Amino acid sequence: MESLRTRLARITHLNQAAAVLEWDMETHMPAGGAEARSQQVATLRSLAHELLVSDKTTTLLEAAGPVSELDADLIRVVRRDIEKASRVPSSLIAAMAEAAGRAKGAWQEARSTDTFSTFAPHLERIVDLCIQHAEALGYEDQPYDALLDQYEEGATTRQVSEVFEEVRSQLVPFAKEMGKTGVACEGPLHREYPEDAQWAFGLKMAERIGYDMNRGRQDVSAHPFSTSFSISDVRITTRLEKRFFNPAFFGTLHEAGHAIYEQGIDPALEGTPLADGTSLGMHESQSRMWENLVGRSLPFWEYAFPQAQEAFPAALQGVSLDDFYRAINAVSPSTIRVEADEVTYNLHIMLRFELEQQMIAGKVAVSDLPREWNDRMEAWLGVRPLNDAEGVLQDIHWSLGAIGYFPTYALGNLMSVQLFDAAYAALPDLDDHIRHGDFSALLSWLRENVHQWGRRRTASQILTASTGADVSAGPWMAYLRRKYEAMASR
Ligand code: ZN
Questions:
Q1: Does 50 participate in catalysis according to the annotation?
Q2: Does residue 116 sit in the same domain as residue 186?
């Protein structure tokens, strides 16, 4: 076990060092450094990969005598990682990296000039390689299963389709109704919010909910993210808009939610591949919980609004708590995913999930994608993109070869409510705690039930153990109805 752990620590250190370089790339590096930096990161990542799939690691795994449950979990997960990694030939990985490198540039050009045809041949190539990737990885039912499994282990297309279908059938009419009533006005959010005050207020609240700044740090980047270099160094980034409150504040809570998860992993897992979030869906459940279930709740703002008024006197003096609460919960269907509200967001994801599946199954040709996209957008959200730049070309994911990734966003939203409901049942005074700015009971519940496990348990195991059920649609829909009915009757 000792030799195996030493070996795994070296692999982990290489990956963590690569993560530092990637973080620097997005936050501090001058643009000219990009070429050399990509090579440095690729070198470290491929060294880590070679060490992992080497005969030496396999020999150590076979010889290891596990003495604890943790050891047994470690051996099981590493075996599975190696098994999966060795199914995909390195020529395919190289082809994918090359195709994605070209596709990203083509996507940027296509988006800025609104010409889908510039991107289409690259997307065709990516879809083709993803199908090959799925065949290499293997699957029981359909190729998309293998792609999904890379990001959400154990999830299947059939299971996700069923859950999403249940959500969609209720959500489409609900979102239309909400969009029509227009109960909310976003006005107070589009005023002068000085950037330094946004920075300070966001960080103060992130710390308050449990982001440990002794083991954390925030920087600015164009696309906010969180990243972990060890359990004791988990960083976040944010972006600031002078005349819009939401991006920095809710972005900071979101990324802090991801970081709080990583900071809460059992320190005994440090230096092993277990010291990571268990799936992208579970990760997103943590960011969404702090961003939406806490951060867009009335109890939270009963606590935070007086401080927000103090931090942003020009924007918020004369605004009532009620108006502010309605503003941050405004529902207005739009064509852009990253600007979507809490209600309509999942529809954007389900649209992508359906199209991805059909592309991989050969049922939708890339050339038909813009029309298929726009038709669904109109049917589900009641809005039609004016052009492909604000339609099918809006996201970077497909250009990176990340097909199967999108569903984890919606799964995370669903899981966040299932977990929050379970925490609520265990902590009946939770609203009162939050109203007084005390998040420690919720944080402890999450530490105990979710965070500490790292990759020792799958998302499905964590959900089932702590909520009694696997991922499902009902709790999330019920939460939305509760929330918006209460708001309408205020
Ligand atoms: Zn996220």
A1: no
A2: no
